[in-house]
Each structure stands twice: as C-alpha cells, then as structure tokens.
Write a structure and sequence with these properties.
3 domains, binds flavin-adenine dinucleotide, FAD/NAD(P)-binding domain, five-stranded parallel sheet, 21% strand, 561 residues, alpha/beta, globular
Length: 561
C-alpha cells in the first residue's frame, strides 16, 4: 500500500508517461498508396485566428494536403507574454509582433490570409460568415462567406467584466497590442495631468493612484512593471511627483497569484509590501465610475477609492461568435465551448476548437475511469484492493495522460488521497470510488488558458490533420480507448513546462516541472533567456533583445507616443 503514496507513485508515473509520449501520435498506415489518377481536389481547411493556437497550427500544417485559409481581424501574431512590458515601454509593440503572411510564407503551398472577423459559424452548411473592416468600402458591408471541409476555431477569448457596472466604460484592459499602447499613453497622461498647476496635493495623489483589478499573473506583472517604471524612470523626470504615486492591486481571493505554488505567492506578496504596492485581498469590485472604484470586502460595507487610471485583469469570457455557435449546437448552458479530447467539437464532425476559446470535456474521462475500475474487480466482489487499483492505475495514465496535470495541480484534490480516504483499510467499493471520482470531477478545472496550452493544441491538431487522410484510407490499428471505440490518434496530451511570474526589480518567480520553485534575480535571467528563445522569429528575437539592452542603458521612453 505504501507504493500507492504520492511520493513513490509519481516517479513511476513519469516513466509510464514518458513511455506513452515517446510513441507520439500514431497513424496506422504504413505506406501511402500510389494514385496514378488526377490528384483529388484538396480539402478546404479554414483557420479562425492568428494567435498562439492558430499560428502554431499554421506552422505545423502540411499545406500540400489542404487548401488552407486563415481568417483573423489582425494580420499578425502577437507575443502576449511580453504585453505587460509594452505598457511601460520596456519593450516596443513592434518588437513582439510578426506578420502572419511572413510566418506562413515558407509553407510548401500558399496559405491564403483574409483580414476579417468571423461573426457566424454555420456548421450545417459548412460555411462561415465574415465581416472585414478593411473591405467595407468594397461592397458596403464588407461581408462575405467562406466554405470549409474542416474548420479550426482559434479565436481566443475576450475580457470578462462579470457585468460589473462601469467597467467597460472606464477601465483599461490588457489583452491586445492596442490595449498596451493605450495604457502606456494613459500612464504618462496621469503624470502630465498631475503636473498641472491647478491641482492641489490631494488631487495629484488621486490622479497618481494606479489601480489594478485582478491579482493573477497579468495583473501582478503589470503592477511590477509600473512600479519599476515609476521608480527607475518617472522619479527622475517628475521628481516632484514620485512621492505622491501609489499602486494598488485588488484581488477577490485571499492571495495573489493563487495558481502558483504557495511559496511564490508569499514571496510576491512580501516583495510588493516592501515595494509599497498595496495588495487588497478579499475585495470584490462592484462598480467603477470615471473617478472612483467601489469594492466590497467579506462582510464589510462598500468602500470607494479615487483613481487616476484603472486596469481590469480578472479573467476571460467567450467571444459573442462562440456564444452564438454554442447556442446553436446545444452547448448554450456551458460557460466555454467544449471539445472532446481530440479537440473536436462533439456536435460537429469537422469543427475543431483550440486555445482559449475552448475547453476539453472531462466528464467522459471520469465515466471511463469508473468502467476501468469495474473491470479491475475481476472477482466481482464490488470492492477493489489497493493492489488491484495499482494494477489499473498505470493503464489509466497511458489512456488518459492529461490526468497527469490534475494529479500535479495543487488546486485539485489528489485522487490518491481521495481513494485512500474513502476507506481506512484501503479496500474500496466501486460505489465509494464513484463518489470519489465525482468529487474529483467537480474539482477538476479545465486546462489553464495559457499560450503554452494553445500552442501545444495547435501543433497536436496540425499533426492529426496531416495524418487524417492516411488514417481514413487505413483505419486498422490497435484499439485505443474503451467504450468510445477506435480513434485514429492518441488524445491531446498537455505537457506543462512551468510558469513564470516577473515581479519587478529584476526579480522573477518560476514554478518548473518536478515541483521546482525558484525566485529572485537569477530567475529573472532565466525568464529573459526563455522569453528570448520563445520568440516567433529571429527578427522579433533581435528586436526584443535590443529593447532590453536599450532599457538597461538608456531607461524607458516616457514620451507616451
Ligand atoms: P489569442 O492568442 O488571443 O488569439 C486569438 C486570435 O483570434 C487573434 O488573432 C484574434 O485577432 C483572432 N480573432 C478574434 N476574434 C475573431 C473572429 N471573430 N474571427 C476570426 N478571428 C478572430 N500565457 C502564457 O502561457 N504565458 C504567459 O506569460 C502569458 N502572459 C500573458 C500576458 C497577457 C497580458 C495576456 C493577455 C495573456 C497572457 N498569456 C500567457 C495567455 C496567452 O496569451 C493566451 O492563453 C493565448 O494567447 C491563447 O491563444 P489563442 O490562440 O487561443 O488566443
């Protein structure tokens, strides 16, 4: 029974998983059949979005197999993790974007790009309705339709205001390049306004109060960037104002950076305390006017605080086009568009969704787990010994590698502990197991909405699509998942490579695989190297590196242009 404990189980798990992953995607055809006749017309693949998910798919798709069209209202890819750096001029906006046409230029066959947004998905007629701002002068509306054989929805998400009054009108968001540039201008405007002679000291303080709503990675990173900007650059240029500046982070949970290890949360909170950044935890913003932000703490009256600039960074919500699509296909009650583990929208045969706009359904996995445990009960006693559970558990991980993430996530109740706690003598009835799994199911959160997940999904789906035709021609192959029958591919498996939280003052925190946590100056250098290496092209890599060097030598530009 000791072997079942977390400490000894995970190393074994890693072995099992690496064995599983080394197989990668499996396609069953050994060889491609020669086809002497005319090559058949290529299937039409339409990709919506040029963000992390869409771009990753485009980079990996075999364009000799598909007639690929990509549609997005922006004709570039933006490296979002560096957006907070753009808000204060640490990095220039142009340094983190790459035109999508450049990214797909080297593909075997051309990829067609259309600058437009999709406003309706017709999965029955297999077409999408689009509107182009740049095309309105051509036919009045700029609207057109595009047919597809396969559709990949990778439109990302929009900001979630939770319908809080005044947020849309008065808050800045930090989602797009334009948002970051607007924030940059607005920060400088606050200082210029506070420099005017008609304001007394109290009013200046109000104009120099910067509020960030949301203590997640984006909000925290922006607060840290702003603090650096104020102390390193603004203090020199506006010496009469630097004492009047204040930065507040409002967070509804009890801590900031709750998705990180507790040690990182503590380190960040202590660092912010030392830096004079106020962290108001346990407060929910209920209203934002053009001058004040009103919040409510647990069992407290509402408090209103004046601000000069406010940034709203509390999470994401589905875009209207996705909401309409969900209503049409019977997913109207869900919060996020749901796909199966192969990233396909279950209600539509040829529609896939990747990145922030979708989530992978977990319910079937849980049902299957109960089935697998039932099968392990060979003597039909209705109970499983721990040895029997152990026998099947590795099999489960091979079948459902994505469970690895749940097991490691500190937000999830550890399934092992649950099973262990279900019966003291470590014998478990199937009924207890069902209850335990139901509890895990309710705790299990979808994959995080990160660039890492989006990029891996894009790559996985491209590999599946590249093998699709071959698999249709040769559907034979080992049986994959129970119940649901044969699948051509292994389900999507997310590999977590860790996460960073830059905290300002040349310090960062990192949580890396293997429960490795580090923070401080050396971690900031690790952050620099990882983010430089992850750039989408040598051009942006060069630009980002030169921006960092420029900042070290000359400081940030505070002209607000
Ligand atoms: P996006 O990258 O948002 O791309 C969506 C694309 O769809 C865009 O091209 C958009 O123009 C297009 N689109 C929108 N509407 C339509 C439409 N109707 N029709 C057609 N196209 C449309 N993740 C990390 O892993 N690490 C980080 O450090 C990190 N830092 C972040 C910092 C900030 C400030 C932000 C905002 C996010 C950060 N993220 C980070 C999260 C990461 O950026 C997202 O998870 C990722 O961008 C999701 O990729 P996506 O392709 O799903 O969506």
């Amino acid at each position: 029974s000791r072997a079942f404990r977390r400490e000894s189980f995970f190393p074994r798990l890693v072995l099992v998983l690496s064995a599983a992953s080394s197989g990668g995607l499996v396609a069953y055809a050994d060889s491609k059949q020669e086809n002497a006749a005319e090559p058949p017309e290529k299937k039409k693949l339409v990709v919506l979005g040029t963000g992390w998910a869409g771009t990753s798919l485009l980079k990996n798709i075999d364009t000799s197999l598909y007639d690929v069209k990509v549609i997005s209202p922006r004709n570039y890819f933006a490296f979002t993790p560096l957006l907070p750096s753009v808000t204060c001029g640490t990095v220039e906006a142009r340094s983190i974007v790459e035109p999508i046409r450049k990214i797909v230029k080297r593909k075997t066959d051309p990829v067609k790009f259309l600058e437009a947004e999709c406003f309706k998905i017709d999965s029955v007629g297999k077409k999408i309705h689009c509107r182009s701002d740049v095309g309105t002068s051509l036919n009045g509306t700029g609207e057109f339709e595009v047919d597809y054989d396969y559709l990949v929805i990778a439109v990302g998400a929009t900001v979630n205001t939770f319908n809080t009054p005044g947020v849309a009108e008065n808050c800045h968001f930090l989602k797009e390049i334009e948002d970051a540039l607007r924030i940059r201008r607005s920060v400088i405007e606050c200082f210029e306004r506070a420099s005017l002679p008609c304001l007394d000291e109290e009013e200046k303080r109000k104009h120099l109060h910067f509020v960030i709503v949301g203590g997640g990675p984006t909000g925290v990173e922006f607060a840290a960037e702003l603090h650096d900007f104020v102390t390193e650059d603004i203090a020199e240029l506006y010496p009469h104002l630097s004492e009047l500046v204040s930065i507040s982070v409002i967070q509804s949970a009890e801590h900031i950076l709750t998705m990180f290890d507790k040690r990182i949360t503590t380190f960040a909170e202590e660092k912010f305390l030392r830096d004079g950044i106020e962290v108001r935890t346990g407060y929910r913003v209920v209203k934002v006017s053009d001058k004040d932000v009103t919040m409510k703490g647990h069992s407290m009256d509402e408090v209103s605080v004046p601000y000069g600039m406010i940034v709203w960074s509390t999470g994401i919500a589905s875009r209207p086009v996705i909401r309409d699509f969900m209503n049409e296909i019977g997913q109207g009650k869900r919060r996020v568009l749901e796909t199966n583990e192969w990233l396909r929208v279950p209600q539509c045969d040829t529609v896939y969704s990747i990145g922030d706009c979708a989530t992978i359904s977990q319910r079937k996995i849980m049902e299957d787990l109960v089935e697998i445990f039932k099968m392990a009960d060979k003597d039909n006693s209705g109970t499983l010994t721990l040895d029997e559970i152990q026998d099947v558990i590795e099999d489960i991980y091979v079948r459902y590698p994505q469970l690895e993430l749940y097991m490691k996530s500190k937000h999830m109740i550890d399934i092992h502990d649950l099973i262990k706690d279900a019966k003291d003598d470590f014998e478990l009835s199937i009924e207890d197991l069902k209850n335990a799994l139901a509890e895990v199911d309710s705790q299990v959160k979808s994959l995080p909405a990160t660039a890492q997940v989006a990029a891996q999904q894009g790559e996985y789906l491209a590999q599946c699509l590249n093998k699709m035709e071959e698999c249709h021609e040769h559907p034979e192959g080992p049986l994959r998942i129970t119940k649901s029958g044969r699948h051509f591919f292994r389900p999507f498996r997310y590999k977590h490579f860790g996460q960073f939280a830059p905290l300002g003052g040349e310090q960062a925190a990192a949580e890396l695989p293997g429960d490795w946590v580090s923070f401080g100056h050396s971690t900031q250098w690790l952050w620099y190297s990882v983010y430089a290496s992850k750039q989408v092209s040598w051009r942006t890599r060069y630009l980002v590196l030169s921006d960092w060097t420029r900042r070290f030598i000359f400081g940030r530009d505070s002209s607000g242009i």
